[in-house]
Structures are given as C-alpha cells and as structure tokens.
C-alpha cells in the first residue's frame, strides 16, 4: 500500500493545456548557441548512475510513468481490431487488483494518449468513445517518419487527422533544413503546421539521430518552440539512433532556457527505444532535476513507447506479489 505522500505521485486528472502560439524567429539567439559536448555527456552519465528509488516509492514512480505514456502502435499491419485493443489497454493500463493493492484504484490512472497513424485515427476515436473515456488520440503526420513529402501534402495530412478526431498531432521536421542551416525555412514550415493543427496540440519530432550534432539539436529545439510547438520530441522511433540521455539533456536545457526568456512552458517527449521501467524512471529523474516537478505531469511530459507499459506492469506485479509474472498473468501487456 502506498502512503499518502507516495500516492501523490500517481493521481491523474487530465487538465486542458493552453496552446503555444509561437513567437517571431530570433536568429541572433541561434547564432550564440554553443553546446559543451563533454559536459553534456558527463551530466547524462551522472543522471543514469544515480541511486534508484525502491519499494513503495518505486511503485509510485512507475504509476506516474504510466500516466505519461503515449501508448503507440505505428506498424504497417495495424488494423481496427488491434487499435481497439490498444485503446482498451490505454484505459486499463494496470490490472485492477494490482492498483487496489497499492491503494491506487479509483485514481483514474490511464495512459496520457493513444498514438496511431492518420488512417487509424477514426478507429481509435471510436474505440475510446465506446470505452467511455476521454483519453486523447494523437496522430503522427507530415510524411512520418522521413518528413520528405511536399509541404502542401504534409499540411493536408494534419488537417485530415484533426478532422477525424485527433486532438494531438506529432509532426516530423524536414531534417534537410537543419543540416543545411535553413533555420528560417524550418521555422516557417513548423509555423504552417501549427496553423494547420488548429486547436490540436502539436508535438514536433526533431529526429535527433539524424541532425548531426548536439548544437543542431539545441538550435532545432529553439526554432520548433519559437514556431509554436507545444512539445518537442526526440525521435520517430524509426531512426537508427533514437532517444538518448545526452540528446534529452540538451533538449530539456533548451526548454528551460526558452521558459526563462519567454515565460512559455513547452513539453518534452522522448520516444524510441524506451522499453524498460528502469529507462522510464531515469527519464523522470532527468525531468525532475532539470525542469522541476511541474514537468512531471502529462501536460508537459510524455513517453513515446509501445512495449514500455508491459515492463512497468510486470515490475508492479512483482512489487505486489513478490514474484515475476508468467506470460499468462498479464495477457494484455
């Protein structure tokens, strides 16, 4: 059973977020950017080797991680039936008896969102409505994962996803604009995507594994926030290198600097390769130490993952029962 203080880590009530409308591009800020790579690597290594929380505190952090997951399926063989199953899992991420054992039943614990391809948005909206829950549907868009389709096509893809009921749009940038230093062009493309999203929240995927340097990661983060992104996101999950802690550190430092200078709070979403409960706790630790407790909520922090939830549920099962789950104990994982 969790104590009252521990239980404060896991209550979940979705609140509406204000939409970030963007600012004029400040190229002089970009010109001053320098990233100290050795210092970034040292700090990232320090965060990964910190002493982990244990027992009830660990269970509470696991539940907090669950509420920040964008439960995702982005496969070529996605069908209405497996999207429906994903939506059911999003509403019931942890077995009810396990939540009851932790005194966390009735706290409305669900995943933060369900993330699918644009063609599956209507299926997800229908399934969640049938389940009687208000979990938002997120859709990838803009020529995911490469972002190399014409801008007109990318903008239309956003509009169609929003029309089908997507309340969050994960756009992907054209990495060519970063690699060639076309910062104004990048700003303009993201700004038009922001307009196409309307009232939907926009997460901007940088594809950091393909940006060439940590300096480019920082600059692309700033441009994305200036152009109106509600979140900046590391990766599509399809690159060779996805969410890494050095890249995450650079991005959250950019978020912090942007907040200090403008007063706008922008969210962060690592995605790709986050598979274990231990990984999730390290990302939560990074957010807490670099940005503070306010960025530990789904309004400002998400974990993009498809298999992470299964491992978290296995860890909670072990915490409650003292043994590891057999394959048939958690059939929906």
Task: Write a short abstract of this structure.
With 333 residues, the protein is of the alpha/beta class. It has helices at residues 4-7, 27-31, 37-48, 55-67, 80-91, 96-101, 121-131, 151-163, 175-179, 183-197, 214-226, 245-262, 277-291, 308-321; strands at residues 69-72, 113-116, 137-140, 168-172, 201-205, 231-233, 267-269, 303-305. Helix content is 47%, strand content 9%.
Account of the 3D structure:
- It is a single chain.
- This protein is of the alpha/beta class and 333 residues long.
- The chain has 14 helices and 8 strands.
- The protein has an 8-stranded parallel β-sheet.
- The model is unreliable at 10-16 (pLDDT under 50).
Specify the structural class: alpha/beta
Give the beta-strand count: 8
- List low-pLDDT spans: 10-16
What is the helix/strand order? HHHHEHHEHEHEHHEHEHEHEH
Instruction: Give the spatial strand order of the biggest sheet.
Output: 7-6-5-4-3-2-1-8
Q: What is the first-to-last residue Cα distance? A: 23 Å
Q: Main β-sheet: number of strands, strand sense, barrel status?
A: 8 strands, parallel
What is the averaged pLDDT score? 92
Radius of gyration: 19 Å
